[in-house]
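Record pair follows.
FIRST:
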Amino acid sequence: MMKTKFNWLKLLFILTLVGQDGWAENVTVNIQGRVLASPCVVDTAVQSVDFGKMSALDLQQAGSYSPAIKNFRITVKDCPESTTSVTAQFSGLPYPDDNSGYGSTGSAQNIGIKVIPANSVWSDNSLSPVDGRWIKGVSSVTHSADFDFLARVYSATGNATSGSISGAMLVTFIYD
């Protein structure tokens, strides 16, 4: 009996020393997130760019551009008042000879399609299908933002062949 009492006392003493801290550990959980604005409406009225007919002779030299420049616009509208900016992220099939342009799946060879913001120059301002993005402010009056573009056929290597041109620029919008 005495031995059992002694073991219980020993156990009680150890438990008192260890206490509650020996059985539990404090853990901090950081919780974070972000409340995003509601989406705007993307105006899809005009989304085609037609280069028409052009001569392959215009694209025989490396780094040459077609004379035809086409403009187009994507409008986001009906944005909530809390939306102050829209980010457009671009993706698509890159032009194999210069990934700052979009590739063509048409039958013409050695050509790509360059797309830039309107009022830019045709150098390093291409909206790349690899990492292109463009941020525009939303008008507090119209609750909209216009993305104005210029598009042009381009040959990084020259020696373009005749055939069709077909490309796609995918745009994902993020609202802040």
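SECOND:
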Amino acid sequence: MYNVLEYKALLKAWKEARPPPKTPEQASRLVILTLHQHGVNEVQGLLRFYRLPLLLEPWIGIPAVVVYPPSLPEGVKFKLNTFPVDAKSVPDGDGLTVYVDVTDPREATLGVPKDVQKIVLERSKARASKDYPKADALHKTIVDAGY
């Protein structure tokens, strides 16, 4: 059977694979090509043990998996991308705070009024220059406008 050296060879081949195997067929091909000097029965036994497919011609290229992003259903206007949330940052669980970067042209076209965008930029400049009283006043204006 196999000893530590063969498993080290497999681990090295896996780490060096570009791109790394993503399908069982690609993993089988990597195992077969890495352990080609061993007997066919031994390699097939290893593949069977790990429930990998037995490839008859492993030298034939197996295409990498192409992942297409799912298309949005008709009528969907927004896609909410989420980030990990620290549970301590959510006080009661019934509210949601969303931050929108209005300097991003994709976000700015979502209906944020131009005057609010202008105030946001002014607030950013005030914070950058450490004029916190002005930044706080501008923040209140933004909140009063509903943003």
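COMMENT: The chain has two domains: 1-67, 87-144.
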